[in-house]
Amino acid sequence: QVQLVESGGGLVQPGGSLRLSCAASGSTFSILVMGWYRQAPGKQRELVAAINTINSGGRTNYADSVKGRFTISRDNAKTTLYLQMNSLKPEDTAVYYCNAQRRSGEYWGQGTQVTVSS
């Protein structure tokens, strides 16, 4: 089992920045990929960014809408995942969820609200 706890959400003005964190515990050694997803009201959950954890290179993948503005990273022990969000836009408003994938299944955090508004 893997437990995920997000933090760092909040209210920010357009153009501002936030940094989300996801603390992972449990069987973190077997995690293959970790990522951030978001879900806005009335919309489907979508992938924001993901990072491969099975090699030291940590290959990343981003949604087109956040490329150049968001950066995903993790610590070497794979226990904490980060999402640095810069140049935030109102359309980034959503609940952001941390996700971890193992061969046996995937796990989700409880989500953290990000609101971009003036």
- Mean pLDDT over the residues: 93
The oligomeric state of the chains shown is single chain
In DSSP terms (H or I, runs of 4 or more residues), the helix count works out at: 0
The main sheet comes to:
7 strands, mixed
Spell out the helices and strands N to C: EEEEEEEEEEE
**Gyration radius, rounded:** 14 Å
The residue fraction in helices comes out at: under 10%
Low-confidence spans = none
Distance between the termini: 40 Å
Strands, count: 11
Amount of beta strand: over 45%
Write up this protein.
The chain has strands at 2-7, 10-12, 18-26, 33-39, 46-52, 60-62, 70-74, 80-85, 94-102, 105-108, 112-116. The chain is mainly β and 118 residues long. Strands 2, 4, 5, 6, 9, 10 and 11 form a 7-stranded mixed β-sheet that branches. It is globular, with a radius of gyration of 14 Å. The termini are far apart. 30% of the residues are buried. The mean pLDDT is 93.
